[in-house]
Amino acid sequence: MIRIPCPYCGPRDHDEFSYAGDATKVRPADPAAATPEDWHRYVYLRDNPRGAHLEYWHHVQGCRAYVKVLRDTATHEVLAAGLPSDDLPFEDLEAGR
Amino acid sequence: MAEYSVLSLVRNALGGHRRWIRAWRDPEPKKRYDVLIVGGGGHGLATAYYLARNHGITDVAVLEKGWIGGGNVGRNTTIVRSNYLLDGNNHFYEHSLKLWEGLSRELNYNVMFSQRGVLNLAHSDGQMDAYARRGNAMRLNGVDSELLDRNGVRRLYPYLDYSANARFPIYGGLLQPRGGTARHDAVAWGFARGADRLGVDIIQNCEVTGFERSGDRITGVQTTRGTIGCGRVGMAVAGNTSRVAQMAGLELPIESHVLQAFVTEPLKPLIDGVITFGAGHFYISQSDKGGLVLGGDIDFYNSYAQRGNLPTVEHVMANGCAMMPNLRRLRILRSWGGIMDMSMDGSPIISKTPIDNLYLNAGWCYGGFKATPGSGWVFAHTIAEDRPHRFNEPLSLGRFTTGHLLDEGGKGPTPKLH
Predict the structure, then answer these.
(1) What transmembrane ranges does the database entry give (chain A) (predicted)?
(2) C-alpha to C-alpha distance for A89 and A82, rounded to whole angstroms
(3) How many domains does chain B divide into?
(4) Are residue B148 and residue B207 in the same domain, yes or no?
(5) What's this model's pTM, rounded to 2 decimal places?
(6) So what's the ipTM on this one?
(7) How far is B345 from chain A (nearest CA, A)?
(8) Nearest CB to A48 within list B242, B300, B301
């Protein structure tokens, strides 16, 4: 079991959450101006690092907030967690380190 | 090299089995090869085999970071089928299934391919309609399928839950009689031996650490056993696809996820086919050694760990017991995890890439094992001819740019759902 420190509820088992994927992807700010390649990068391409991965988890069986988590995909260790608007410690780690 | 036959078996039995020779060589890597295949799993070995057999290209090395059979080719639930709805997938997987049907003879190696039938259970009227549609699509493409009603399923498998209080009552099912199982290790060993006999070098304990580039071409591959020059490079590294592609400067529509599988204690013959649950995700068959081989969903988060978590174990077992209550008293003997290269539309990618002489074989999601011979066949064609075979034209990397996706489940760009 992975323990995720929810900013509202404290440490909770990961099966209370629904995984919502890569948190580094940012929707094009001006959809009308975005090129097909911008959409391709946003919708389909992923860094998919082995190591530190910034991701969203939705606390569906708790406070229902989205939580931003920095987690190591090789060990499953949670390195940091916070609100989606937070800048997490270690967030500037190069992906995969 | 000696053929495997009844005669050679008798001869070696009389000699106390001391004179079998190794199935493939253990060569030192040469300075350069015409084609380098990165990844010595089922797909990489099959690709090397068909490069030599179909295209006469024998100056080939397969680079494997571990040992042959240690990756996903030995970590699956051995199911082989071609029961797909969409044309692009259906044609490709049916080609693969036809290759399976002659594979033991082709390789002179018993891959124990057993066409025991794959049954998908339906648990609602809507699901029966969807199965009728998929079964019809299969038949239109010349693939066998039979839609069974509840009694038809019951005649095949009387021990499923047909009780009045079953949480997910069985309405019927879609059967592909030509589907079945194979022995996964034997597939790896058979292709390795076959490729080796045709002159391919299989180099184990040789991890790729980088690529040497000259413009839009790769001129060499850096490995833990030195730099190896190359004319062309084929990549078939499953869960590590994104990492190896990144070394070549490519970003791909792939996420890596862990999928667990399980084997129970051995039993006398119980399940003589493959049964899949339709109300959740669960599939089960029985190996020739007697253990029930089963699996379910991935763990639903990005992972490279080759081991999963307990909530998924509980979820898989709950699915199994809902479908087949007599599983409840069994003990699980072993479990393991493999890293799936989950693509963004749930279908594989066998394709040219933006780099002129780099070819990509990836995105297998849960389903790479059954594709092994077909994948090798069309990937070898793509590398040898520098253009896709007609069966992998729809499986191009470019489909994510043009929008020609192959989304069997209609689930959208969410890899964990495929």
Answers:
(1) none
(2) 9
(3) 2
(4) no
(5) 0.96
(6) 0.94
(7) 9
(8) B242
